[in-house]
Design goal:
mainly alpha, Glycosyltransferase, 3-stranded antiparallel sheet, 16 helices, 13 strands, about 50% helix, about 10% strand
Length: about 400
């Protein structure tokens, strides 16, 4: 890959095919097979047969699951993972074509740049033949100016949009001239949120007291989606500059990873430290972090395996509660380890702002007994092609 600056006039070569992320073959695949199996079983529980979409979440009550309304974004992320499983040749019971049709037949819910990006991403990967129609439905080049999340510089929305445009470019190389300008514009807006220590703030242009605080802090989701978007943008358009920004952020995250592999919830971007530790989400540990870090490894050659495997070990009882979050009884992976009271999390943020020592919270932690489709979609997207799905419980 040749080095270019996005500030220059670009003449982009046709990119070579982007290989899927790989894991070290010396590492055992039994654990990955088990996670893939549980992800598919969990998605079966979450699927709403009548709506042909996945529920936003289901909460375990002790006697059964309470189902919430469907989620189109969660469904698209689930389909990204299931598509990867299908590509590997593994079997599942979902009619992906019917679910895709249920998503694409109604796009009135798309209202933000992040929504547009996720829809492009999903369509480019799962139904590339429908990509021209989706692009015809939206003025992608005007999205950044029209949508509130992009105007205010929300990191996750910009990251999803940039990733979606990059995947659209990968799916149809003829779209280079149509997409390069908006991709570069999204990249520049996203980069404005990255601070000197490599971490991304949650928002660039606050409109409330809460969002003023958000300029100084960024969630793990902000960081990891930015890493993935920058990596995919660099690969799709063969531009090296975004990889430096992605590496700066990824290295900062790995330096702050917990001693048990925790990817913490919120970061102080000014000081480059952890602001809020909890909740720690299973989706971050076994889905989102592996998706982004293994993609970045593939693009740069820098190894992130140790951090990824350490994060996975947190799911399997190497966590604060010493509890395996993989439930053999329910055939699911539970959502999180969290504080029992929300005020505890806000107190951690206040301590970070005021440079005060934080009190231990170990005795006030609990498991979040719920499941969400995006969790299992990202897990399968990261590992669906790397290990057999058919596995028995260990």
């Amino acid at each position: 890959m040749s080095s270019r600056s996005v500030g220059q006039s670009l003449c982009v070569r046709q990119p070579v095919g982007t290989p899927l992320p790989h894991v070290d073959r010396e590492q055992p695949t039994k654990e990955l097979a088990h996670l893939n199996y549980l992800a598919i079983q969990s998605l079966k529980v979450l699927f709403d047969e009548q709506e042909r979409l996945f529920s936003r979440r289901m909460v375990w009550t002790g006697q059964g699951f309470h189902r919430e309304a469907i989620s189109r974004s969660g469904t698209m992320i689930a389909l990204l993972g299931l598509h990867r499983i299908e590509e590997s040749g593994a079997q599942h019971d979902f009619n992906l074509a019917a679910i895709q049709e249920a998503i694409l037949q109604d796009i009135t819910w798309v209202r933000s740049a992040g929504d547009v990006g996720l829809l492009l991403w999903f369509t480019a990967v799962c139904a590339p033949e429908r990509l021209p129609a989706v692009l015809n439905d939206f003025d992608v080049n005007a999205t950044l100016a029209l949508c509130a999340d992009s105007r205010r510089g929300h990191t996750q929305g910009l990251a999803w949009f940039l990733a979606g445009v990059a995947h659209a470019r990968q799916a149809d190389l003829r779209l280079h001239e149509d997409l390069i300008d908006v991709a570069v514009a999204a990249f520049r807006k996203l980069l404005r949120n990255q601070r000197e220590r490599g971490l991304f703030g949650h928002v660039a242009s606050p409109r409330s007291v809460c969002e003023i605080v958000s300029t100084c802090f960024g969630t793990f989701a902000d960081q990891i989606y930015a890493v993935y978007a920058l990596t995919t943008f660099a690969q799709s358009f063969e531009i090296e500059e975004p990889l430096e920004s992605a590496l700066n952020c990824a290295n900062a995250l790995c330096a702050l990873q917990g001693d048990r592999g925790q990817w913490w919830f919120r970061y102080d971007t000014r000081k480059g430290c952890v602001a809020d530790r909890y909740p720690v989400y299973s989706a971050h540990q076994d889905g989102m972090a592996p998706t982004a870090l293994l993609a970045l490894e593939e693009a740069t050659g820098q190894k992130f395996h140790a951090a990824v495997w350490k994060g996975l070990s947190w799911i399997a009882a190497n966590n604060e509660l010493g509890t395996d979050l993989r439930s053999s009884d329910q055939a699911v992976i539970w959502h999180s380890i969290e504080t029992q009271k929300r005020i505890t999390r806000h107190w951690e943020t206040a301590c970070s702002c005021l440079h005060l020592a934080r009190e231990p919270v170990m005795k006030r932690l609990r498991i979040g007994y719920e499941i969400r489709p995006d969790h299992f979609g990202w897990l399968l997207y990261a590992f669906g092609s790397l290990a057999y799905v058919r596995a028995s419980f260990s």
